[in-house]
Amino acid sequence: MSGSSIPYHLRPHKAVDRRLFVDLLSRCERWHPLTDAAYISMGAYPLEDHKLVHRMLGLRRLIAFDYNHEIVKRQTFNRPIDTCKCVCHSSGDLVANLDSVLADAGHADASNLIIWLDYTSPAELGEQIREFVTLLDKLKPGDVVRITVNANASSLFSPKPQKGVPTMPGEEVRKVRFEKLGERIGDYLPTDTEAEMMTDELLPCVLSRAFGAAALEALPISGANTFAPLSIVRYADGQQMLSLTGIVVPRDQETAMRTKLDLASWRFSSKDWGEVHLLTVPDLTIRERLFLERAIGTTAVPDLKEHLGFDFGALEVGEAFLNDYEHYYRFYPNLLAAEI
User: Fold this and answer.
1) Burial of residue 92 (number of CB atoms within 10 Å: 0-12, 13-18, 19+)
2) For the chain, which residues make up each domain, given as ranges?
3) Any idea of the CA torsion for 283, 288, 291, 294, to the nearest 10 degrees?
4) What is the helix (H) or strand (E) element at residue 176, kind and residue range?
């Protein structure tokens, strides 16, 4: 099952990832004010991220886009404020015509841009990277970009079982995936990439570094500005996804910017393109959540397990989740049944 096929409100990893993004944006304001920035993203039909940036950051210059006219109509119905403009564009068209899109929406006066391109098609990865390069060429210091792409290894290649045909060895599967990835992203493939890296655990780092190479192409070392990675996270609501967030910053101000954002104390910050964090959001009952939120940070992990009386391993999480939970429990979604 793909992430896009799961109902939007039943994607807890996506919900936490989105709220972590808004939390990161609030830190960005310590270095560069975002009050008059324009926020642009696909948003899907509920426009959850548009609602969040408006409610949490006070942004009013909002643009939602989609290539499907019917989804745009649904976005228009669900927009949080009247200054949220919903337009029909593909991501490529939006990037190519960014200035006119802003002008048509009445947001040409925006001080800066926050743009989230949330891709779902793994077959178009090469095009997605090229759109990223084109976008960076149009931005200025203080602009924030977030890219989400499919990072599921099986999306590159997964052999179909056939009756009477031996199962393809894992080594051969990874070799085919490596060839497919090379075909899709070409020169952006890191030179030290090997076929053995074509797994769900290692592929996100390869893709992240590919986007890092693309950022360097758009903003080379000889230029005044750089695109600094701020947070790189992988998670799975069905298919594994990779979210990369960075900011355009004068090259000689990057260290000062990171200090002002206090990224060293933020669990999901990334100092470079190779630092990818795993976000694990298991399904917890309200009772389990309340217990963890009360005890996390003050009770040792072994003691937590003893007090719970059962092993979280049954939920495919372990100490890594319990150690990280205190850093994002505030963003955990509340999914409750209600009669309306």
Assistant:
1) middle
2) 3-34+112-278, 286-331
3) 20
4) helix 170-185
Q: How much is the pLDDT for 164?
A: 72
**What CA–CA distance (Å, rounded) separates 281 from 234?**
11
* Separation of alpha carbons 275 and 70, rounded Å: 38
Residue 325 token pair: 């939970």
Say which residue the tokens 């954002």 belong to.
261
Describe the crossing of helices 319-328 and 12-28 by its angle, rounded to 10 degrees: 50
111 phi/psi in degrees, rounded to 5:
-70, -35
154/336 Cα distance (integer angstroms): 33
Q: For the chain, how are helix, strand and coil distributed in percent, rounded to 5? A: 50, 15, 35
Give me the half-sphere count of Cα atoms (radius 13 Å) on the Cβ side of residue 58: 6
Q: Rounded to two decimals, what is the model's pTM?
A: 0.86
Predicted confidence at residue 311, as pLDDT, reads: 66
Using only the alpha carbons of the chain, give its radius of gyration: 21
Cβ contacts of residue 313 below 8 Å, gap of 6+? none
Q: How many residues does the chain have?
A: 340
Q: Beta strand 38-41 with 113-118: parallel, antiparallel or unpaired? A: parallel
Q: What is the dihedral of CA 208, 214, 215, 216, to 10 degrees?
A: 110
**pLDDT (0 to 100) of residue 279:** 87
236 φ/ψ sector (left φ>0, alpha ψ -120 to 50, else beta): beta
Give the residue ranges of the chain where pLDDT is below 50: 1-9, 316
Question: What integer best gives the mean pLDDT of the chain?
Answer: 89
